[in-house]
Amino acid sequence: MSLTRFDEANDIVILENPSPLVTSTWSTNDNNLDTNFTSSVLSASVISTTGSIQYYIDAYNAVSTSNASAVQYSLAYGHRHGSGSPDFTNDTGSFGFSAARVNYNQYRQLVFQDETQNFTFGTHTPDSIYVINVNRANYKQRLSAGSLSLFISGANIDTPTDSKLKLTDDSVSRGATANNPNYVGTNLGGYYNIVSGSNGIISGSTINQKGGSSSYGHFYPHAGLIILNGDMFAAKVGTGATLQQDLPQTNTGLSTNYDLNHIGMYQLISSSNHFIIDTEEDVNSQFYFVRAKNSEFNYTNNPSFTSGSSKGTILFSTMRMNPKVFITTVGMYNDANDLLAVAKLSQPIAKDFTKEALIRVKLDF
Description:
The protein is mainly beta. The protein has two domains: 12-17 and 285-364, no CATH class; 21-281, no CATH class. Helix content is 8%, strand content 30%. A hairpin with a 2-residue loop joins β9 (192-198) and β10.
């Protein structure tokens, strides 16, 4: 076995931070999650004031009986005063202690690490939020800014004649500035505003939104979170459904006891048949140039090459002065001669004393 040390100056090239690798987020590898399903166990009989359905609802890519079924994202509703979900108990002083309040407190702790900080969108601080939490197993390093395309069925606030509200992040509209994305006051990395538009570009030159708000919500690509401004969805949407605390019970389809806002939002997202968001990761590449000179790598350790009775003797006399071998594999070792990596060639390379070979090995990490 021949070992040759790489010359770091001439044989190794490192490319850092190339263009990120972008792929689909959804487990089906489809760009658009156009069909959503919920768990078959969701029914009025399993709903209680502390049941998981009060906190969130999971969206699947296929029916739960299918082997391909997997959670794609979860959707939760939060209210800083606890409205929008039933109190845990009916005892005196329990008003507002509910799943909605727990959700709001949980996410403001996660985002701000502060139990008193409220979610503010532009100059507007709503009481309620909707949270879309993309399944962590579905994306790589982060979600891809500019790829968000979320449709919500109902009267479009910016364009009343449109039957769907079309949301994206404002990463492209921001441009390559120091404030892209916004890192102020967040513990989850930077975030972008969620706006009416497409492919990271705001629709129109101005934003017609509630109470001076600069966005429909915030998009945290490193955390896989979309936090929506609840007040932007309190107006009439869909076929008579009014989201927030007064969502009609007949629109939930799952409960006859409680108003579940996150189920209502799920239905409006599901019926829009359009949820696109990509995932991306930075892939650094390191190239090793393996140089097989004419006088090197002309013999093999294959037992058929040497005589078993006379150790080290070439079996065939015609190969003794002019051996012919084929390179099929490159092994990479450390200084202790431990094999660290193996690179297989797409096809064998003929080698003898009259030939030289240059093999490029690429490692992505």
